[in-house]
Amino acid sequence: MQKSTFHNENFEINGIQIPEFELKSGSLIRIYIPNFNNENKPLGFDLTIELIKRFQNQKTNLPWAKNHQQNFFSSFLNPLTVHRYLINTMKIDKVNSEVIIDELKLNPNEKYEHLSFNNKKTLAIKAHFKKNDSILLDYYGVSASEIEILEKIVNTEINKGKSAIVFDNLQFAHEKEPYKNIKPIKITLPTSD
């Protein structure tokens, strides 16, 4: 039986309706957001950040798996490696760190800053799933050639009983989601009269 991990009541933000939904263990809610509002101003990632903050206010143990930003001086003086990122930044124990590195086929001694954007995102997602049953994540910036790999990794975690809310561009909405445990929510803009 699937247990509820997060419930969102219907609400409005900046004139945009966010529908009610319930996130359950072993499932994924994929929220598609238009790139621009009715005035042709950027919307997608900005609204994503607002929604993430709101969802985290509702449930404080709902982390966002985002890429780590190391400041310039510390990256120059003491660059993070993949292994140190997992242990020191993500607080993953040595055994689980090695499991993640092995699953993703990464070099533990590679400098974190040299990883591709997609590898950084995948590493963050795996680390957060290792520590949490439910996470927030986004597919912004993931290349078209890498999205299937990322979706497969996320789905593997969902099949273990984990759950996630994913944010993505509406223009990339699938006609049919690649996995049956995904519930899509397409955010629409209010029509101007």
Low-confidence stretches: none
Helix content: 25-40%
Quaternary assembly? single chain
Average pLDDT number: 90
- Separation, N- and C-terminal Cα atoms: 45 Å
Query: What structural class do the secondary elements suggest?
Result: alpha/beta
Strand adjacency order, main sheet: 6-7-5-8
Order of helices and strands: EEEEEHHHHHEHEE
How many helices in DSSP terms? 6
Shape: globular
Percent strand equals 15-25%
**Sheet with most strands:** 4 strands, parallel
Q: Radius of gyration over alpha carbons?
A: 17 Å
How many E strands? Answer: 8
Description:
The chain has 193 residues and is of the alpha/beta class. Helix content is 34%, strand content 20%. It contains 6 helices and 8 strands, in the order βββββαααααβαββ. The strands form 3 sheets. The chain has a 4-stranded parallel sheet with strand order 6-7-5-8, sandwiched between helices. A hairpin with a 2-residue loop joins β2 (11-13) and β3 (16-18). The chain starts with a strand and ends in a 7-residue tail after the last strand.
